[in-house]
Amino acid sequence: MGVPMIRCGCDVCRSKDPRDNRTRSSIFVQAQDRSWIVDTGPEFRIQALREHIESIDAVLYSHAHADHVMGFDDLRRFQTAARPTIPVYASIETMQHLERVFAYAFSPKFHFPGYLRPERHVIDGPFTLGKTEIHPIPSEHGTAHVFGFLFRQDNRSIAAYLSDCKTVYPKGVETLQGVETLILGTPCRRSHPTHMNLAEGVAFARSLNARQAYFTHLSHDFAHSATEKELPDNAFLAYDGLRLDL
């Protein structure tokens, strides 16, 4: 829901630490030859302005829940005469949800000047963006089947991003083994039916032999400064505006 949360006066929601002010989870990836977004939450416009993002080559969607897609319309600002469409990558289930909610963008009868024109790419296995191999990681998020994404170059598993998941299927766990940087959603401290909590996230990162882990998609359960003191030396809380040079 973002932090501060509506109708909450807890210590974290009233915190003056800017790292405790959280918009909805997303990442922007800049490789040598391509750039892309994973998910466009409700604050996507604000995030893009804050980070001075001028160009993207593709958008990847993990799933179609509102906190991951409701900035979709603002993708129109990344269309240009040289790039008249925006490549959108998603599972068939997620793509169907996007086509329903944003029918004006996907339907040919609404292709008027200025409207967003997504270029549909259904993910059914690994694919490439430039020199980067992207491996979808199927996971369970309650009743939703979602994708995390592993980014590989030159036989390096450089980073993986799994924002919403409770269970990662065995094949995905195998694919993720030895990932250098794991970015994992752990919204809560308590046990949760559709998400890993922080303790489960720490254990999962350890099971993958990840070189470092960043925990994201955080609720007001976590005060940044205090929580980081609880974590292993190679684990950290993500925060809005965090930049990693990988």
What's a concise summary of this model?
The chain is α/β, with parallel strands linked by helices. The chain has helices spanning 44-50, 66-69, 92-101, 103-106, 170-176, 198-207, 224-228, and strands at residues 27-30, 35-38, 58-60, 86-90, 118-122, 127-129, 132-141, 144-153, 156-162, 167-168, 181-185, 212-216, 235-237.
Q: Mind explaining what this structure looks like?
A:
Strands 6, 7, 8, 9, 10, 11, 12 and 13 form an eight-stranded mixed sheet that branches. Strands 1-2-3-4-5 form a five-stranded mixed sheet. The protein has two domains: 25-124, Ribonuclease Z/Hydroxyacylglutathione hydrolase-like (Metallo-beta-lactamase, Chain A); 126-238, Ribonuclease Z/Hydroxyacylglutathione hydrolase-like (Metallo-beta-lactamase, Chain A), CATH 3.60.15. It has helices at residues 44-50, 66-69, 92-101, 103-106, 170-176, 198-207, 224-228; strands at residues 27-30, 35-38, 58-60, 86-90, 118-122, 127-129, 132-141, 144-153, 156-162, 167-168, 181-185, 212-216, 235-237. It contains seven helices and 13 strands. The chain has 246 residues and is α/β, with parallel strands linked by helices. 19% of the residues lie in helices and 27% in strands.
